[in-house]
Amino acid sequence: MGNNHFKRDDRDVYFVLKEHLKIDRLLGHKKFADFTMADFEMVIDLAKKIARDEIAPTFQDTDRDDCARFENGRVYAPHCFRKLWEIFRESSLFALTQGQEYGGQGLPLVVAEAATEFFMSANFAFGTYSGMGPGQGAIIESYGTQKQKDLFCAKLYDGTWGGAMALTEPDAGSDAHLITAKAVKDGEYYRVTGSKVFITSGDHDLTENIVHLVLARIEGAPQGAKGVSLFAVPMTWVNDDGSLGAANDVTCVGIEHKMGLHGSATCQMSYGDNGACRGHLIGEPGMGLAYMFQMVNVARMAVGLECAAFTANIYANALEYAKQRVQGTRYGDRSGKRVRIIEHPEVRRLLMTLKAYAEGMRALVYRGYLCEDIAHASEDDAEKQLANDSLALFTPIIKGFTSERIWELCSMGIQVLGGYGYTSEYPIEQYARDCKIFSIWDGTTYVQAIDLVGRKIGMNGGRAFNAWIDEMKAFIAAHRGGDLAPDAAALEQALTAMLEVARMYAVEFTGDKADLVPLTASRFLDMCGEIAVAHLLLEQAVIAQRASAQVQADHPDYAFYMGKIASAKFFARNVLPAAIGRKAAIDMGDMTAVTLPEEYL
Amino acid sequence: MGNNHFKRDDRDVYFVLKEHLKIDRLLGHKKFADFTMADFEMVIDLAKKIARDEIAPTFQDTDRDDCARFENGRVYAPHCFRKLWEIFRESSLFALTQGQEYGGQGLPLVVAEAATEFFMSANFAFGTYSGMGPGQGAIIESYGTQKQKDLFCAKLYDGTWGGAMALTEPDAGSDAHLITAKAVKDGEYYRVTGSKVFITSGDHDLTENIVHLVLARIEGAPQGAKGVSLFAVPMTWVNDDGSLGAANDVTCVGIEHKMGLHGSATCQMSYGDNGACRGHLIGEPGMGLAYMFQMVNVARMAVGLECAAFTANIYANALEYAKQRVQGTRYGDRSGKRVRIIEHPEVRRLLMTLKAYAEGMRALVYRGYLCEDIAHASEDDAEKQLANDSLALFTPIIKGFTSERIWELCSMGIQVLGGYGYTSEYPIEQYARDCKIFSIWDGTTYVQAIDLVGRKIGMNGGRAFNAWIDEMKAFIAAHRGGDLAPDAAALEQALTAMLEVARMYAVEFTGDKADLVPLTASRFLDMCGEIAVAHLLLEQAVIAQRASAQVQADHPDYAFYMGKIASAKFFARNVLPAAIGRKAAIDMGDMTAVTLPEEYL
Lengths: 601, 601
Description:
The structure is a homodimer. Chain A is globular, with a radius of gyration of 25 Å. Chain A contains 17 helices and 14 strands. In chain A, α5 runs antiparallel to α7 (288-324) and α7 runs antiparallel to α8. The mean pLDDT of chain A is 96. By secondary structure, chain A is an alpha+beta fold. Among the domains of chain A are: 11-136, Butyryl-Coa Dehydrogenase, subunit A, domain 1 (Orthogonal Bundle), CATH 1.10.540; 160-286, Butyryl-CoA Dehydrogenase, subunit A, domain 2 (Beta Barrel); 458-601. Chains A and B meet through β13, α8, α9, α10 and α11 of A and β13, α8, α9, α10 and α11 of B.
């Protein structure tokens, strides 16, 4: 059994939920009226305990001796995940947000995901199995027939069966509309044939069955996105009475050998090799991509949560190490007195970067989940619209920004530990290997950037984007004086730079300069991410300033609030100014990369 | 046997050597008078061939099935390295630069390292064995007695014996002056006792003997750096007649399990467990750290070469993939026509970043090696001084800047390949794992940054720094007009920003603001690196512009020169502006990270 590297606490989680986002407001909506804050806390506290005591000890094992394996045509999940699966079943932790009709807990997303963040810090590989069944079940619950719901949802929600999302084909990664898997009507069902790759948990031995949601093209369907339909394809057929039938001609051909996430089975799948793979059509023909996109959006938000979860525990580990490791003398001290490395300004800078990002990413992602909850639960159309707008705008920012930053943050965490950080004795190098997929799956950073620039900022006449800008301008206006004045000014400077780029997109980067849009979009996304995080951290600083005045200086909350204020200032003054550099590069309007003939590369 | 991922060519290597640095000037010095350019080319061409045909096929194997192993108290190097060792012996590739008296080839560093760059692209893990013996031999040749030289150098230079540099102790990584290993005089020799960690190739089975250069403290020596001496400690004792004697009480206790470089044995060593470990004192007592620093500086420059080598092959692999992989439609094209991903502007941007950095890092490092050659070979005192100044100034910039950038560049390379980039089928994820040690070993990035800011820029009244600045100012003045005018202006803007920070270090960041020096030093180092690379690439662009006018447009050189000009413009307009963002952050003068009490973290 590996070391238990789980060193997080829950203070900032509760700060964001209660003091910043004030999620108790959700209790006022009918959807959540049966809950109390105590219910929410019970789930979160249980998640933290299970993450720390049960999941975290598997982290290093499932990277090494107990990886996902492919043997004799079957996939075996890490053996230690069997125990975790049982714990999840006993505590009903699979379907925290899904409908109560089929056994889900019906919790708000923001609560469920706060709980899930602890699981992800502990060992994200487990989540690549546990999260799939409920995720697929939710699609079936949304779009399936009553019979399909009755057949599948309860067992996907309680962990009896697993799930998989079968989208990508060898030739169609980002080109989902070009998939070639086929479906032919056969009575009530369809015969499905095709190959899929990069299918997370497409096969494993944790459950008696795995339900694949497969995108395929019905015979005779139109080309392109509108010809793609969604099918529920169980690996073992499910009879009408719910009992298991015969094998459904779904085979795993192999699993990928990857940089990280060795505990997760990334499967190459084959459907209908013997013409005997049957599937249920879910919803309307031709709507497959639209339905699947509900799941893709969930996955994009989840990337933000994964990055926050990783960063939080990297920070906690780096902090603990820095407090203990003695090395070097304090800068400027000629006495030769050795100090713990936490006393070195450079180590402080790295730690503060990790702290500010851990908190900033958390705020960004939780706020997104809260919007989603409000969009679902609100009875007020204007509030619903505002929440939906915000969620749509922020999804690409969250996915793109956090997944690029986590790579840099892992490097910083390793750097704090020096040579030991490069060894597998400590967990950070594994987080670095595990995280690198985040900027790729569920839409690469570029896909996010083009979604942001090409669609989201101009959506509904710029309604969502303008609402965000107005919110920040109001914040800046309210804090021009006082302790946070330099930070409000830094936010304003970055915001002005970002708005100038947005203006360029609208009026300058057109015609023969149109390629400047895709050439600069990912940098613009980074600017938006930096600004969004700075804004949220500054909002938190204002709250922390008020709250700190209410507690004694020797109360742990006082130190926490002071730390929150420091996170905001540090981020605004040390990280946010990078936006100025990004703007300076965009200002150059350089098209060398595209005008260069390919043969000169 | 893994795939052969080696896809580099040698065109830019020869461009830098011949057209940019004009290394034929070295032939005019007595030290190199016996060589011709044809001799240099023969070595480089041979290196490229061996790298591609022999070393590269081992790259993935030594990461997986044929790693360094520790079994029953002994270390086994990857088995496939035995064949490479024989090839290196047959072709005399171990000691390319070392003295000819003991069988070295006496080549200029800049030539030898150009050859070595190919080896490093192919499989750097092999170099962690092959480079150590000659490196230790060079120290002995510089500082040892005639007897010591006769005993050790020839066999370290021809690969009969290996070498290891035993500096770091568990409690003294960056604190080399605090080492506790002991040496007690015993006749002609010393009895050495102590423990060392992170000893690269401290034990292996590729050679019949391994000579450790061990830093230890002679009984009664003063505390601190001045009490540290250097000892040659062979694992098997060497009799006066050169024959091998008994085992010398040197044991490997274990090897580290690391994120990457699995082919390299990172050893925990124990000396004198049974009181029977003898060593030769090298040079004067108390001079150990000074001697060792010669080796450390070699290792720091080598990091730059490693980063250039990795980036060059990452670029070559990403380029080949991007030319073949079809995915998505061109931005703005509504026809739905799918294109190879090299046609996507974002992919072009990533490829150009890789290309510009590969070439820029190469120029930066080769220029450093040329300075070292001139410093050794020149008969002119002013020229020698200028070269020594430049080398001293650039060593921390090269080590610190390249080792931080390579992490980002690996991410970009993986991103070009999408999901496939995350798999072990392609080489880039392995480069990412292998490279992460570069920002740590031989002095962390912060150690480099403080060396630069605290010592090098002010060294000799700022002589080296000012000479560099004057060189750049002259370049900018000469190119204010013409095709490169925007690039010269961008360089000037970044230079002005950097000089303003240097001024702050001298006059503002003092007294109670003194901590702003260590808080900002690594960002200043990044600025210096960005500026240095931009300057060198622009110098190359000027050369390429002139040269391109001399060749037909259908000659391969024409495409190469056009590509060189594009690299310079791309870097100056897309990468260099980050310096403006770094300056903006330094301008904030934020000390939050150090003023924050530790308990608030």
